[in-house]
Amino acid sequence: MSKAIKITRILIAATLFVLPVFAVQAEDDFKACVRCHGPEGNSDNPDVPSISGLSARYMEASQRAYHDGKRECGTSKMKCRMAAKWTDEEMAGSAAHFAQFKRVAPEQVFDSALAEKGKAIHEEHCASCHSAQAEADPELQPAGKLDGQWREYLEYALEQYAGGGRQQPDKMRVALETLSEDQKDELLNYYASGR
Ligand code: HEC
Ligand code: HEC
User: What is the number of structural domains in the chain?
Assistant: First the structure.
C-alpha cells in the first residue's frame, strides 16, 4: 500500500470516529431549546414561537436582544434567565443549527375568505421586510417569518411592540398604525393558514 493511500485510510477512519461524537454533543446542546420550541424548532405550544424557517441572522439578533435585556420574555421568564448566560458562540451556533429546519405550519383555525384578504394586506404592507427575499438582503434588518407561526404568539408579539417590551422599526409601526382591527384580524388569519 502506498504511503498516500495509508494516510487517506487513517484520515477516513479518524473522521468516522470523530463525527458521531460531535453530532451527539451538538444534539445535547440543543435539547433545552427543543424542550420549549419543539423538535426541529416546530413548536406545539401556541405561546412558544416556532423557530424553524427563521434565518440564522434573525435568530442570532433575537437571542442577543434577550441576552442584552432589550427584549422581554413575557410568556417564559426562564427563557430570559437562560439567554442572559449565553455566549456569542452559543448564540451563533444555535442560530445556525435551527436555521437548517423548514417550518411545518401547525393546524390552526382560520377563515379562508379573511386569509385571502390578509394575503393582499401582507403583500402591500409587510412583505417588503417579511419575505424570504428581504431576509436574504444584508441591507435590511432581519424581520422573521410570520406565515405558519402560532396566532397566539403573533398577537402577543404585536402587543409587546405596542407596549414597548420590544423595539420595532419605525416603518413597521407606521404600517401597523394604518391598519384597522379588522385588517389585523385578516392578516392573522392569513398567517394562521400557513400558506
Ligand atoms: C424555557 C423555554 C425556552 C427555552 C429553553 C428556549 N426558548 Fe427560545 N423562546 C421561548 C419563548 C417563550 C420565546 C418567546 C419569548 C418572548 O419574546 O416573550 C422564545 C423566543 C425565541 C426566539 C425568538 C423567536 C421569534 O420569532 O422572534 C428564538 C430565535 C429562540 N427563542 C431560540 C431559542 C434557542 C436557539 C434556544 C436554545 C439555545 C431557546 N430558544 C431556548 C422559550 C424558550
Ligand atoms: C421596514 C421593515 C418592516 C415592515 C414594513 C414590517 N416589519 Fe414586522 N418586523 C420588522 C423587523 C426588523 C422585525 C424584528 C424586530 C425585532 O427585533 O423585534 C419585525 C418583527 C415583526 C413581528 C415579530 C415576529 C416574531 O417572530 O417575533 C411581527 C408579528 C411583525 N413584525 C408583524 C408585521 C406586520 C403585520 C407588518 C405589516 C403590517 C410588518 N411587520 C411590517 C420589520 C418590518
Answer: 1
Which grid cell is 192? 394562521
Which residue's alpha carbon is nearest to atom 41 within ligand 1? 33
The CA angle 60-139-86, to the nearest 5 degrees, is 10
Structural domain including 40 reads 3-193
> How far apart are the C-alpha atoms of 3 and 1, rounded to whole Å?
7
pTM score above 0.85: yes
Q: Output the residue whose Cα is nearest ligand 2's atom 37.
A: 126
Angle at 169 between CA 68 and CA 155, to 5 degrees: 85
- Residue 33, ligand 1, Cβ within 6 A: yes
User: Residue 105's pLDDT is what?
Assistant: 96
Assign residue 24 the CATH number of its domain: 1.10.760.10
95: cell is 442560530
Cα(79)–Cα(77) distance, integer angstroms: 5
- In total, the chain counts a number of residues equal to 195
* Percentage of the chain modeled with pLDDT above 90: 82
